[in-house]
Design brief:
This protein has 125 residues and is α+β, with helices and mostly antiparallel strands. It is built from two helices and eleven strands, in the order E-E-E-E-E-E-E-H-E-E-H-E-E. The protein has two domains: 43 residues, no CATH class; 73 residues, Phage tail protein beta-alpha-beta fold, CATH 3.55.50.
Length: 125
């Protein structure tokens, strides 16, 4: 699974129809859905007024840990080694500091991570 297999849709004003195969849902303002593994998830309410990534933050709701770690690798140009752990993550990390981002994901999940800045790798166990 990669980040391309996951999609999040947020509605800020008006209405947005989200369709996947034979499923569909209509979102109103401040509602979002995730599409994971080919299925539209439940509606989620949010309070932010602009896409959160525009503020330098990546946010996840019940996402596979592997996808979250892939996003850290993409944001900071690090290779992620390991991390194919059968866990899900809800939370966020900012795009300012790779150490803080990695710790924001790994520590709450009880995972050990080793960062090698010279090789630009993160090993997750």
């Amino acid at each position: 699974m990669s980040a391309l297999d996951v999609m999040s849709v947020e509605c800020y004003e008006g209405r947005v129809k989200v369709s996947k195969d034979d499923q569909s849902v209509i979102l109103g303002p401040n509602e979002s859905v995730n599409i994971m593994e080919g299925k539209i998830g439940p509606k989620i309410s949010f309070k932010h007024t602009q896409p959160i990534w525009e503020t330098g933050v990546s946010k996840f709701y019940n996402e596979k840990l592997k996808v979250v770690l892939e996003e850290i690798g993409r944001q900071f140009d690090y290779k992620i080694i390991g991390g194919n752990i059968d866990k899900r993550f809800t939370g966020s990390f900012n795009h300012l500091n790779p150490v803080f981002a990695i710790e924001a994901i790994c520590k709450p999940m009880g995972l050990d991570c080793k960062i090698n800045h010279d090789l630009r790798t993160v090993t997750v166990q």
